[in-house]
# Entry
Amino acid sequence: MTAMRKALLGAALTAALVTGTTSAAAAPPEADLAHHGHVSLWDGRIGVWLVSENHGPSNVSQATVRLAFSEPMAGGQELPPSCLWSSDRVVSCRTGELRAAGAVGELALDLRTAGRPQELTVDIGTVWRDGVSDGNPRNDLHRVLVLATGDPYVF
# Structure
């Protein structure tokens, strides 16, 4: 290797160290999303109240939470503007911006089931978080067994 090449390589490595850049991709920002709330089932209706939080350290500009029901929902039901039907058993909803350690997104759903089940399960979880990693995904994944008692089952 010539002296000129060694000098150029040395200068490039020094610049990378000083500026903190390397050829490896930078780690994605990290946040800790959590979903909590309750689900109730009564007389062929299901109510979901969900709060999404970000415990930080980075902000999340947008995330998507998925609610998957073990029983099909009745067709033709409107959802809040932040939500859409993925199938007759799955609803996906945007959380909106979740700033680190503070911002809270709330969601309320009142749905009709296709039949009148005596029980069902709801799987709740984050399916997208705008490129932000989550080192603790357990607090945004829940499976809730809901009996048709009208009682709120908390998660």
The chain has one helix and eleven strands. Helices lie at 3-19.
